[in-house]
Amino acid sequence: MKRSRIVPIIIVIAIAAFVIYSMQGGSPENYEATILKDREEKTEFMKSASGSPFLKDSIPFGQLNYFPIDETYRVKASLTSIDNKKVVLLATSDGLEQKYLEYAFAEFQLNGMNHKLLILEVMDSGPQRGKLFLAFADETSGADTYGAGRYLDLKKVPAATSVILDFNLAYNPYCAYNDTYSCPFPPRENILKTAIKAGEKNYH
Asked: What is the full DSSP assignment across 187-201?
């Protein structure tokens, strides 16, 4: 085969390999850099943004605490849609309730166990309406992590049959920093019987 033909073939193979590699999440270094950037941006928000739960009531900001980044806690979960969706009432930290709509169940394996979490959809009017909400608690809750559970943000993708749950991005509700906020507790289904040693830890 002539050299002029070999070069284009090599380029095509290299591009294909790069695309496949990127779809699989890239290198561990890039993944870690992405998580660190997310944490840095959150710290800056808490320090100076007008929507910070610290600035709202002039609470001194210290630092946010995290578990070491561990890609083991980034899992692919299968989604099971819920046909007859029901309204779910979640108790909140101030003794009230918030309404959510059932969306789907996420099933995955982690720490050698099978798990199933209920994903909810926000029903309240406003910019959050229709967004997905996942609150969970685990065996670190009340010890290393906030006792009332932590949250994960998920992107709604119509007709999706799977979703990535990255617990390295698990974060505390604002109630962990300022008790004047109303924060929903996780539904009973979302109390995991394992320790999720990833994401945000206790603030204090």
From this structure: PGGGB-SS----SB-
